[in-house]
Amino acid sequence: MQGIVFTGDRKLELREFAEPEPGVGEIVVKVAASGMCGTDLHHYRKSVAEAPAAYIAGHEPAGVVHSVGPGVLPAVAHVGQRVIVNHAAGCTACVQCRSGWPQMCTEAPLRMFGINDHGGHAPFLRVPAETVTPLDPGLSFEAGAAISCGTGTAWGALRRLGDIGGSPLVVFGQGPVGLSATMLAAARGASVIAVDIEPARLERARKFGATATVNSAVDEPVSAIRDLTGGAGSPLALETSGNSAAARAALESLALWGTGCFIGVGAKVELDVYGELRRQLTLMTSWTLSNFEQKKCADFILQNNLPVDDLFTHRWKLDQAEEAYQEFDRQVSGKGAFIFD
């Protein structure tokens, strides 16, 4: 089979790999959709020396269980089952793994599919059976791929922010993760102010439920947000873009007693403790979500009939990989995915 490999300096190759066979406790998933995530871009853009060229890329797969190895109970995974694949695997025994957070594993080197182990940009993927979550037939494979990381990351951050219903929430960045946050937050009753520099993305944000938008390439975002909130600032802010200026604006846009969550990879946040002390802020980060929350996210999307499929503006075949990542690297469109027959 062929798989996409990042070779460094915005280059990639389609390389030949043996079709995987499941070992003890493992399954092989026939990939139906493999999403393209902003984290993939970080690896795509790495230098030749830093690129993970030994591994198949892609950490947002969804598909069907193709084969099952010894020791896998049917209740965990069975042939023909539609599944979402969590992109991290840990020791399975430590407190973090047992609580559904394999990416927080404390006892074993972390396996990250598409980064230090083979990922989903290929027709087949071998993973530990405990990494998969059932995908309801009411959701597409593309939706499952989004929930596996990008949309799931937005869900996890909103859960960290707590009770958002009825409250203003500023979402900085309206790429796939930010747009997912806008959609999910609006469905949970928040009044979303969407911030981005691309008019097309802001237009999409309104379609996904934003009550107001701010083009930060045109208007100073903190002032605009304060105007939209009666001068008080927003009680909640979520930074998804990974841009340091946006992260600073998210911090400055918070109201007294405000809560900010930062998930955009690449941003640097500086805090002047004396200057911010009297604002009584709560600041946090969020890293994807637990296996259990992944299921809750999927259930919420299904129950509320949310248009996750509309996050996708591009669907590609594997042999279009070079064009696909060049388009994604421009960061002006929506989400992309590789679709397999």
UniProtKB/TrEMBL annotation:
Cofactor: Zn(2+)
CDD domains, per the entry: THR_DH_like (cd08239)
Domain of life: Bacteria
Domain (Enoyl reductase (ER)): residue spans on this chain: 8-338
Keyword terms of this UniProt record: Metal-binding, Oxidoreductase, Zinc
Membrane-spanning residues: none
Keyword Nucleotidyltransferase appears in the UniProt entry: no
Record-linked Gene3D superfamilies: Medium-chain alcohol dehydrogenases, catalytic domain (3.90.180.10)
Keyword Lipid metabolism on entry: no
InterPro entries on file: ADH-like_C, ADH-like_N, ADH_Zn_CS, ER, GroES-like_sf, NAD(P)-bd_dom_sf, Zn_alcohol_dh
Family the UniProt entry places it in: Belongs to the zinc-containing alcohol dehydrogenase family.
Identification of the protein by name: Zinc-binding dehydrogenase
Native source species: Gordonia sesuvii
